[in-house]
Write a structure and sequence with these properties.
Layout lengths: L1 H19 L25 E5 L3 E2 L4 E9 L2 E10 L4 H21 L11 H20 L1
Antiparallel strand pairs: 1-3, 2-3, 3-4
Helix pairs in contact: 2-3
Length: 137
């Protein structure tokens, strides 16, 4: 009987504490920094294009693609911000994996990085647009 009463009291306290727990929406990501990059001369036959600056609930992301004979030959992440230290850590882990996979695939047809879904989806979307921009011009 005492065990049941103790379990009931502990459960009631846990429910009250959980009900009073206040959550907060994620902070808005900081605005991306406008890095001034000198236009580097591209090797012969290489076309480049920038994807759009995309914003997730946690980050801002922009990617640049370089194509050689229509195949992805270079990728640069132009903007990758994080709203907090946790997001910055996730982005720092995901970005090199995404870049490496895209270069190995030679396209934007890659999988998202586990644990970095928003970052991955936005990075891939910006890369797809960058590839289209490079093909156009």
């Amino acid at each position: 009987m005492r065990r049941a009463l103790a379990a009931l009291v502990v459960t009631a306290v846990a429910v009250v504490l959980l009900a009073r727990y206040e959550t907060h929406p994620p902070a808005k990501p900081p605005p991306p920094t406008k890095a001034v990059r000198a236009a580097a001369a591209l090797p012969p036959g290489v076309k480049a294009g920038n994807g759009p600056l995309l914003t997730t609930p946690f980050s801002s992301i922009q990617v640049r693609a370089e194509l050689l004979r229509g195949r992805l030959s270079g990728v640069q992440t132009l903007a990758l911000t994080g709203a907090d230290a946790h997001t910055q850590e996730i982005n720092a882990r995901a970005e090199p994996l995404l870049r490496e996979e895209a270069l190995l695939a030679g396209s934007a047809d890659i999988d998202v990085v586990s644990g970095a879904t928003y970052t991955s989806e936005s990075w891939i979307e910006s890369l797809r647009a960058a590839i289209k921009a490079a093909r156009r011009g």
